[in-house]
Amino acid sequence: MPTNSQRPLALVTGASKGIGYELARVFAERGHDLVIAAEDGGIVEAKQAFEALGATVTSVQVDLTRSEGVEELVRRVRGVGRPLDCAALNAGVGVGGPFHETELRKNLEVVDLNCRSVVHLAHYVVRDMVARGEGRILITSSIASTMPGPFEAVYAASKAFDQSFAQALRNELKDTGVTVTSLMPGPTETDFFRRAGLEDTKVGAGKKDDAGLVAKQGYDALMAGEDHVVAGSLKNKVQAAAAKVIPEKVKAAIHRSKAEPGSADK
Predict the structure, then answer these.
(1) Which residues have C-beta within 8 Å of that of residue 151, sequence separation ≥ 6?
(2) What is the CATH number of the domain that holds 49?
(3) Cα–Cα distance between 127 and 189 in angstroms, integer?
């Protein structure tokens, strides 16, 4: 990647598909060069698509559930030779089903990707941005962060972690020139529900928001320096507002009705 480009540079993780792909696309369309990362080979096709939009793109196929993967991504970002103007820490995964029946390995991968890798990568990103006195960070949380998540117990907890982490960082960094924004989508048309084993649930079978719309709203909130954005439909915004006053046990019961295996047929 050339080091003399005047275009701002953005990092997007989980960029081979879904919200991450759409975020990277918006960055490219709005004049950013990119470093994109994902664990699968689709990141190569994504690189080609974003280059066709005029961006200079570095793609990194890497497993961010492993510390070595995060360190490799950091090395590749720094190897570009340009500072990061924006970082979208978006990579995430879920596991659906009764907790005691799901694989421990898969649940720990949720924690490693959704929580541990975010902290690990943010450590480097924040330190470098603070040293420069400018930068923008987007952390993908979820509407699931606002409630206990029966049958998605680890995923919902991981997103509550991301939400709290993002807002705490934002407060810490308020006088540094670095902003942190949390992106809170609701059910979105991505590969998430298939990978999480939630296709036979009411939420998995129900209507979902367009990933492109969610990404655009996330990008706009990031560039405006907002603290968070509940993206997607009006229903998501109503749900997020209601979650502030509804008791936890009631929210858990509501989530159960949507995420319980077989609930798609009820």
Answers:
(1) 96, 97, 98, 201, 255, 256, 259, 260, 261
(2) 3.40.50.720
(3) 34
- Residue with structure tokens 């319980």? 260
Residue 5 confidence (pLDDT): 67
Three-class DSSP category at 11: strand
Q: Is the pLDDT of residue 1 over 70?
A: no
Parent domain of 84: 9-186+211-231
- Burial of residue 262 (number of CB atoms within 10 Å: 0-12, 13-18, 19+): exposed
CA distance 137 to 227: 10
Q: Is 97 helix (H, G, I), strand (E, B) or coil?
A: coil
| Both tokens assigned to 262 | 């077989």
For the whole model, what pTM was predicted?
Answer: 0.95
Identify the bridge partners of residue 13 per DSSP, sorted by sequence position.
37
